[in-house]
Specification:
Elements lengths: L1 H15 L2 E6 L6 H11 L4 E4 L2 E4 L2 E5 L8 H8 L4 H14 L3 E6 L2 H10 L7 E4 H4 L2 H14 L24 E4 L8 E4 L2 E2 L10 E2 L1 H13 L4 E12 L2 E11 L4 H20 L3 E12 L5
Parallel strand pairs: 1-5, 1-6, 2-5, 12-13
Antiparallel strand pairs: 2-3, 3-4, 7-8, 9-10, 11-12
Length: about 290
């Protein structure tokens, strides 16, 4: 009991040091799109949005509320109503010791409820969407949400954080590779949600997954190139099929297994989507030129 009390006191002491900001605006008006911009302005490195706890470019805890089957469940999940959800976020806060946090919500009451559920101090400053976005921009974002079902996660979803340090990618952009060892070319793509259900699960463009995998393949000395990639988005998660040309001289079975593990970890970390299976088939061998 004494140990439990000490842990509780430690948590309270930690959280009283956290400065809490809120970013408030109606659903679909562009909060998630602008979250990183707002966080950067106030030097905030941690964001709470729709059930996710985000550190800079990485989802470090939680699961997206957008996966919930109904609107009611979506709201409950975003508020961290269950003890399990609360404890997961609190555990991450104990690990990372954030000095400040930005909470996104559709109303003052919502962000206050989130802060209370997570045992955070009272919100010290609130930024409203209308303070940083024009009426036309909000109407365009709302129209896109309603008619096309698009949703933004405030993370550069397909950024390989460690390798891309120094790059700031907009959440609606991805990179193209022009060759092994070259810098990425930035081009626009979208994080999307199914148009058939505004309240249903969200998904991400297949091209995003392909480019994550292609980029990771350039970091594997045993893979010469990816010749084919097939992505199957299922309600349970992503299924990946790849065909590659391998480099002679490596333990191919071992190298491809390590590549699968790395790919699964990166996709799940950067997109918050579960990978059900990755299948890789070696379709050819590249024999290095003799020097």
């Amino acid at each position: 009991m004494k140990i439990f009390k000490q842990k509780g006191e430690s948590m309270i002491k930690l959280q009283t040091k956290i400065k809490v900001y809120a970013f408030v605006g109606p659903s679909g008006t562009g909060k998630s799109y602008r979250a990183q911009m707002v966080a950067g302005k106030y030097d905030i490195h941690y964001i709470i949005d729709d059930g996710l706890f985000i550190k800079d470019n990485e989802v470090i805890a939680g699961n997206s509320a957008k996966k919930a089957p109904t609107k009611i469940e979506t709201v409950k999940h975003a508020l961290f109503n269950t003890e399990e959800e609360k404890q997961e976020i609190k555990k991450a806060m104990r690990k990372y010791h954030p000095q400040s946090i930005l909470i996104l919500g559709t109303s003052d009451g919502m962000v206050q409820k989130i802060a209370k559920n997570l045992g955070l101090p009272e919100i010290s400053q609130t930024i409203y969407i209308q303070d940083i976005a024009t009426k036309e921009e909000m109407e365009t974002a709302r129209r896109t949400r309603v008619t096309e079902g698009k949703h933004v996660i405030p993370v550069p979803t397909f950024e390989i954080k460690k390798d891309f340090s120094g790059y700031l990618l907009d959440p609606l952009q991805i990179f193209k590779l022009t060759g092994r060892g070259t810098k990425p070319y930035i081009s626009e793509k979208s994080v999307i949600r199914p148009t058939f259900s505004y309240l249903g699960n969200f998904t991400i463009s297949d091209q995003v997954f392909r480019q994550i995998l292609e980029y990771l393949s350039t970091k594997s000395p045993a893979i010469e190139k990816v010749t084919k990639t097939r992505i199957n988005n299922t309600p349970e998660g992503v299924i990946v099929y790849m065909e590659v040309i391998v480099v002679y001289g490596y333990n191919i079975a071992e190298e491809l297994e390590q590549f699968k593990i790395k790919s699964k970890q990166e996709i799940e970390k950067l997109t918050a989507m579960e990978v059900q299976k990755i299948e890789i088939v070696a379709k050819g061998i590249k024999i290095p030129d003799k020097e």
